[in-house]
Structure formats: C-alpha cells, structure tokens
Amino acid sequence: MTKTASVVIGANYGDEGKGLATDAICAAASKPIVIRFNGGAQAGHTVCDPDGRWHVFSHFGAGSLQGVPTFLSRFFVVLPRIFVRERFELERNGENPKVICDPLAQVTTPYDVGINRAIEEARGAGRHGSVGVGFSETIERAENGFGLTVQDLASEVRVREVLAAIAQDWLPRRLAKLGLRTDNATLARVASPAEMSNWQAETAAMMAHMSVSPIGAALAGRTPVFEGAQGLLLDMDRGHSFPFVTRSNTGLKNALALAIDAGIDELDVTYMTRAYLTRHGAGPLRNEQAALDFAEIVDPTNRPNPWQGTLRFAPLDLDVLREAIAADLSDAASTPLKVNATLGISCVDQIRKTGVLFRNGAPIHVPRAALGHLIAASTGLPLAFESWGPTRDDAARIAA
User: Fold this and answer.
1) May I ask the CATH architecture of the domain 4-102+213-386?
2) Which of the residues 8, 121, 387, 399 has an alpha carbon 20 to 30 A from that of 200?
3) CA-CA-CA-CA torsion for 274, 280, 282, 288, nearest 10 degrees?
4) In Å, how far are 158, 287, 345, 388 from 348, measured between CA atoms?
5) What does the pLDDT look like over 157-171, one tens digit per residue?
6) Report field, pTM of the whole predicted structure over 0.85
7) 340: number of Cβ within 10 Å
8) Of 1.10.300, 1.10.8, 1.20.1630, 1.10.10, which CATH number belongs to 106-207?
C-alpha cells in the first residue's frame, strides 16, 4: 500500500507561512505527526489558533496547539535551553507537547553559541545575519569529528569526554581558524563554568520531556507532515548570496532521505511564499524597498533584534521563485519517490488593493484578488491555498 506524506517548504528567505501551512495540513490529516527535517533553534514559525491562542514555534512542530506530536529528525539541531524554555511556555498555556527525537540529532553546546556570537560581533558591519544560537557552529564541529548527539546525552561519561575534547582540541583549532582570541569576552561569558552547569541541567530537563527513537518506529501508525525551516534562497548548496545562507538543506533533499528511511512512497509538497518578499538578516535583497512602503504589514514574529536587525521587504520576483522551486524539485528525479508539488501563498490580506510583482526584471501591478493565481501560474504549480489571515481557517480558501 502506498504511504504518502505531506511536506511544507519555504520558497524564499524564510518567514513564508510554513507554520500556518503545517497547522492547516495537520488539521485535515488523520493522526498526523510533524517531522522537523532541517534547521534548529533559529526557526520561528508562528501559529495562531482560530480560538485566539498563538505561539512562535522553534523546536516543536507547528501542529502542537492541536496536540500533534513532533519528531526531531537526524537533520535537526537541538538547543537544550530553547527547548526547555519553549516547553515551559507551551505548558503555561495549557499544552503538553509530545516530542520524539532521532538518536543521531546533534546537540548545541555553550561553546557553539559563544563562537557563533563572537565571530558575528567581530564581523561588525559585515555580519552574515546569524541568529546567534550556534546552529552552524554545531554542524561545523560535528563534521570535524567532535559531534555530540542526543543518544550521547544518556551517558554522563560520554558527555564529559566530548565536552573535554571540544574545550581542549576543537576550541583552540576553531578559534585560530576564525582569527579569534581564546580569551574572547563573549565566548568566555557564554561558555563560563556557570553556563556549562546550567547547560547540563537544561539537557537533563530536555531529556525528561522527550523520547528517543529512529524515524521508522516514531512514525508508525501516523500520517507524516514534514515541516521545513528557513527557505530555498537560504539553502547551503543553492541559496542566493553566499555566505549569507544557512548551514542546512532547506528544500526537498533531507525530506527525501527521511521519507526513504521511513518507507514512504509519495510526497505531497507545498511550496510556501508570501504575496511579497521578506528577508530577516544580512545579504542582498533584490528590489528592496523601505519599510514605509509596507506600512500596513503586521508581523509580530519578526521583531528587530541585535543579530538580524529589522525585517526587510521587497516585491516578489516571479522568475526567482520559479527557478528556485524547479531546482529543488530536480532533487526528486534520482529517487524512487513520487512527488506532487503545489503552491501555497500567505499574507494576501497584507497587500493593498493592488500588489507589485517583478517579472523579467520589471514591475507589474496586479489586483490583490488576482495575485494568487498569477504567482502560481508563474511557477507552473497548482495553487493549493492562499491565506487571507493568520489562522488555519483563513488558509482554507482552496483555489478553483
């Protein structure tokens, strides 16, 4: 029997409405489970329930307000402090989220956070736009033989060994490569003995609130909904404007690998885009316009912060959108999986009566009511839905 899963992928620089789409898909699925297939603590997926509850999800899947469990895959990077903080926030709001984690998921340490922040500060005006949570540094460390996985956390001896190796071997090597001093004030503060002690307490609290299992067992009897983080234009292999990209595959690549691991045959993929373009962080943004031109846009999630600055805006470029999606879909050609792709559009309600799009390098002005179909037509994909508000009920307008 064919086993089908849904996949939600951001088609731009992130902030496209992936949380909204995931929540809507979960509401229509039988016994869903959300699989986080890339990224980590730097994600911020906003979900607003029709009853008025809302949450910005980082570690937990965007179906959590509906009681949908989350599976953190081997491509996900776990940050204990943010996991514990987020779970506390959800519990305070009456939720009891269930999380299952792949034993091979990598774990961020204070050293990673400290290096990340120190190097961004050293770059000054040339910052790469990192969120400052040590995501890329965790992957860099793991790829160089100093990985710390969720399954390692079960052994205090193993954790001590890895932390000692990081401090004695990896840290001097990495700092030398980055041109940072070993007595860097930011690193010393973030990775101080007190902070290391806090991190160990946070890892214990995190492990008390998750179970550990490979993907096959975790998904048994469930309908998988793969939830991506960031967007195609930030992909580490294909993203625009290196080095202003994430250290992650943001498109189909990881989802395809996990689907094959789990015995899934078919993927229904929804590529998400806003009706306009945003970028939170450094790097080029084609046709960027001042925030004044988008004065009516309400975005409670992407507030200004010292690591990414202020949310930036531009009209959506239809050619870039089409090319990014087509390149991502090409990854499925070498796999046995069948992929059915559609487009989802969020934030149509944020556009004035007439929206601006770019095509062939020139602006075109389109009535708001026609935006969805024109954007979808430019990609060659069917329009799955367009959202005229913040909740899954607002995203239920299925296009004819």
Assistant:
1) 3-Layer(aba) Sandwich (3.40)
2) 121
3) 40
4) 51, 19, 7, 5
5) 999 999 999 999 999
6) yes
7) 14
8) 1.10.300
